[in-house]
């Protein structure tokens, strides 16, 4: 019982204290209410954000410009690729800023359901391939040619690879031909699925630090390459059509021109945000800079975008024309 | 099968105790012999990108739902109505505590109001101690710099729990009153709890769109089953005598329910609420994948750049929220129990105090509604930064100093235990493994368990992912064995000492609700992307349940029995192995059952860190359209494994109790 009394007394004390200290700004005063939404013609802009840092960098800059230069209310939606595409149909997503191929989704949503439309390239070149940690490329330079991989296969053995060399693959949503490549190039390797990008990056990070042997799937542009500059292994050169039959592929990945996709409704809306998305174009270096601000310098999306926009006003102005 | 008939026959009852381990040994011996002869034949392997006709068909179903979403009004209006109601609920709660609303730059109730209300509610429903804990915990969110994220999570959790209880308690009451309804509902509950969320996450956003409603419904699907199960269980455990007494006094069925059954099962029903909250919090990071705001998003985003510190800080907030809500509901359950027997004096004092508290809380709410200092949490979350950098330091130290040792452990377990067992399962002909499973079901669980096992094996073959299922089964079995090892060791320790229990329990709670990826990044550094990492993840998540159940079982061994053994000169070791563990046999079987189910619920997480097999299939199905059908089939395979082992272990538990 006494415990309850004490709490009661404490409550009363708090009460009197706060009542006497009741100064301070009120909610809704100008000093306290942050930025007021500037009245623009833009309205709400639903931007999908797919889960990798490069995309986050794209979205950070586009959202920043849309908010500050166009007065849009930007709603960023953190979604996996499949669900973001689905959002075109349900009207919940206006734009995807960095699309990696995905011909199946294009067929389904652009050609068949006609709910989405292409909005040009981002200017980023997507490179996919097999990478090794830099110490390994330095110690054994010949490893960067696929013909020499078999020579080192036994070094890449792990508890998961069943006696063969391990080729580590990452997130299942990423484009990969690795099983076919291993089979058709007759390599003494086994594809092991790490299952997520987190697992893949951690594997490379550990390998570089402890000088252990790892070879795996990776891609550029990617923020991690500015922490550990992985080296790409050359595969047989890509020629148009050499990847026509998935199970027969024996050549390198093509260079992907990453592109933007918008919902059909958004494209027809005449929103200034649509023009921004359509004109948005930058280089791999630009994206890497912003991605580094976010991933390594730990800036918030908005701070990172502001830093880049302030330094690259001319590029931004070109998108707004 | 001959063994099955033998063990199930009534004549065998007397000798079952002796024959059961022998029968198991015989089955295993026959299996090994046949494996040696038939290795590599009829193994039903399917490559990562290959699909069966069932998978294609499931793809087509998914596609046609997507394509006809807008042209099927009945379908659309039905789901739209549900979505609207839930969306309104979520938006309302968010407007109260987490999101700017109605032209205000801040929510209706600021941090001071929320802390005050929580403290008051904790005190009124529970006691002074949990009220202090609640106030401290909620203030901690602000110090971490995660006030708004925490409130977003709280808003979604509260909405989901509310919906789950609105649906769950009536169904639970119905299932508790009628055995037939109970029988029909149970398989659905199993399904809801073991089907991996990834399987229905994408379709759900088709029906209910991206946003609060989908996030809430995802959570409800996973969180409602405990409320239903525990409510039903509570009603069933009300003593027959009380019901009969009411009957003889001429009470109608409604009167019986309202005046006897519900009041008498109040305490257990509150425990159901508790479990529902815990389950809802476990969904926080998964819901973040479909844009649910809150702490889950912070975790997911931090891990994209492997920022363990930030992820840990947010994970810690989830843990604190879980512990606060758990202790408050537990205290509320205890009050529900004691209030029934309390004398009139405390009640007389309590009324005015409650009223005074309500006034104080109302004042705090008003202040936080009106003044900025009480609306927005002051400070810049410096504590959060300290926590993050401390977590980073610890992680870096572990990675630097333990990696040699951990590789050895991994290789010993993988080569010595996992690989041989996996080879045995995946390289045996499917019908051989199937027969072995059915025979084991018969010996351990009896005829009904054997029939269930047979049906599950048949359906597993039908899913087309048999070989992957066997790979997953091998890892699951190894993980469950480790869970039981830890469960017995720590459980006995906790069961024998109240002090140890009090010290260890918060760690167990943390392990259960901390989002797995927060500790998985260091594990990945230590063990690499391997099946072993997946096993460790499953053990971290499942061991606490086993530990808690076993500790409970050991504690329930009558004091007098232990004392008798002590006075007879038994050593501590003898008391544990000859008295406490044998007498807690029921708890051990239950712990195995729950341990297995929890391990299975981590299969998908395992797929994200190198386990491959079913977990990877599910993740891939979630990410790639053409693999959707296969992912769904893999999800069903996980459910089938779960149901099979649940039925076998439960039947075995009933036998040991009998």
TrEMBL record, chain A:
One Pfam family per UniProt: OpuAC
Gene3D superfamilies in UniProt: Glycine betaine-binding periplasmic protein, domain 2, Periplasmic binding protein-like II
Domain ABC-type glycine betaine transport system substrate-binding positions: 46-310
Single GO term (MF): transmembrane transporter activity
Gene Ontology CC terms: ATP-binding cassette (ABC) transporter complex
Matching InterPro entries: ABC_Gly_betaine_transp_sub-bd
Superkingdom of this protein's organism: Bacteria
Protein known as: Glycine/betaine ABC transporter substrate-binding protein
Originating species: Streptomyces mangrovisoli
Automatic annotation (TrEMBL), chain B:
PANTHER family xrefs: GLYCINE BETAINE/PROLINE BETAINE TRANSPORT SYSTEM PERMEASE PROTEIN PROW, GLYCINE BETAINE_PROLINE BETAINE TRANSPORT SYSTEM PERMEASE PROTEIN PROW
An example molecular function term from Gene Ontology annotations: amine transmembrane transporter activity
Transmembrane segments: 21-38, 131-147, 154-177, 197-224, 269-290, 310-333, 353-374, 430-461, 473-496, 516-543, 595-615, 627-645
Family membership: Belongs to the binding-protein-dependent transport system permease family.
Keywords, ordered alphabetically: Cell membrane, Membrane, Transmembrane, Transmembrane helix, Transport
Protein name: ABC transporter permease
GO biological process: choline transport; glycine betaine transport
GO cellular component, one term: ATP-binding cassette (ABC) transporter complex
Localization per Swiss-Prot or TrEMBL: Cell membrane; Membrane
Recorded topology in the membrane: Multi-pass membrane protein
